[in-house]
Design brief:
Length: 107
């Protein structure tokens, strides 16, 4: 039985360029979500226009982050860890906001 050779590459791959744009947008979307929820809880569910503005901004930043992180996977021979992190954050936030919109419209 031939012995397998495990090749280890010691060359560090640079981060994908678009992932460096995507991660700050994901962090901004997360911050907007937290601020929106905090204002809503502080006002006991009777939030004003600020809650909607923070929530809408969070949705927009999450969509931008999702688009940039998906576009960064096209780049060849790059490190995609930041893209994966921002993709997960923005996808979870978008699912959360869609669920919140559905609950708000139905309930």
């Amino acid at each position: 039985m031939p012995k397998r050779q495990h090749r280890i590459s010691y060359i560090r791959k640079p981060f994908a360029r678009k992932s460096l744009v995507s991660l700050p947008f994901a962090c901004l979307a997360l911050a907007g979500c937290v601020v929106s929820l905090a204002i809503s809880v502080y006002h006991q569910g009777n939030g004003d226009v600020n809650v909607a503005a923070w929530g809408f901004s969070s949705i927009v930043f999450a969509v931008i982050s999702l688009l940039y992180s998906a576009a960064s996977f096209v780049e060849q021979e790059k490190n995609y860890i930041l893209s994966k992190i921002s993709l997960i954050i923005s996808a979870v936030l978008l699912v959360f906001w869609v669920c919140m919109l559905i609950v708000g419209l139905i309930g």
